[in-house]
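Re-running the complex after MR caught last week's input typo. The corrected sequence lines follow. Everything else is unchanged.
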Amino acid sequence: MIPVWVQVVYLVAAVCFILALKGLSSPKTARRGNLIGAAGALVATAVVFFERPLGNIVPILIAVGLGAVLGAVGARRVQMTQMPQLVALFNGVGGGAAAIVAVAELHGFDREPAPSAVTTTAAAFTVVVGAVSFAGSLVTFAKLQGLMTTRPVVFPGLPVLFAATILTAIAAIVIAAVDPGLIPAIALAVLGLLAGVLLVLPVGGADVPIVISLLNAFTGLTVAAGGYVLGNVLLLIAGTLVGASGTLLTVMMARGMGRSVTSTLFGALRGGSTLG
Amino acid sequence: MNDAVVWLTILVLSIFVGLEVISKVSSTLHTPLMSGTNAIHGIILIGAISVAGTADSAPVLVLGLVATVLAAVNLVGGFVVTDRMLKMFTARRKAPPKR
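Corrected-run output:
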């Protein structure tokens, strides 16, 4: 049972995230909003150590410190023109983190007394969509960084392969939900990685920001599902906020560029023109 | 109230809050807002810490620690890069070009 005071601090952090989004919507309050969000994240990270008795404290603190330094140095050093691909990279590692957490949970489920089907389904969903977000974001990063062509990459059979991957992933979610374990979890991750690559390859360079925003919303959804699996209300709220606002933002960005989200994703597959 | 229903209630209310709270964003702020929401989902860090802290085998510990590093990159880097974007943004607004 999570101590009540910890749950109250989580609630405070959730309110900080809502205020952060509200602040970020207006030029006058945007910077303050971002800082409020960071403050919420800081207090939440501090109190997680009091949620339940945790072991391995020293390696955890080293891992947090390492990640914080890498993130902060990357964010400070990057040139202004490279910021979009850095955001894509940050989104990808976030999705990867959520997927790994869910893999660990699916691995644990085969020993614990039977978790509910909803929980195992949520964990399987988190693995797949987190992996989609991770792989998709890495491809967008490669496109923006000039590591690969920014033109849409389409090959014969790509739509069929993509559809087959999605259907197999859905079937694998059902299998993993019924019989969780490490091997189904790894299969889910591989299918998610493949789907992520196939999703982003046909997207042309000018449309990449819209796809980053969509993958950002995906990561939000995985964090929300991960929150349900871990029994953490803050993760559910924060992930859902990002999933909902990220989806709306994606639609607004596409509209602002005179595009629709579906033509962005699937335009090249239909043989229509996609801005290169 | 049923536990699952409590979670469903929180989920549905959060969706509405998430949609409502950014519905009036100005188009100039689309990119910083995306970057800010990107930072917020880095809070999966607390999930990664829980997994690493309660790991009962070496593989799970390694998974938890890798997730912790990745999530910390997302969380800290996300807020720092958003702040940098917004700093540029406000600097540009304060010094409008003379015409």
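None of the earlier attempt is carried over here. DSSP finds ten helices and no strands in chain A. Chain A touches chain B through 96 residues (CB under 8 Å).
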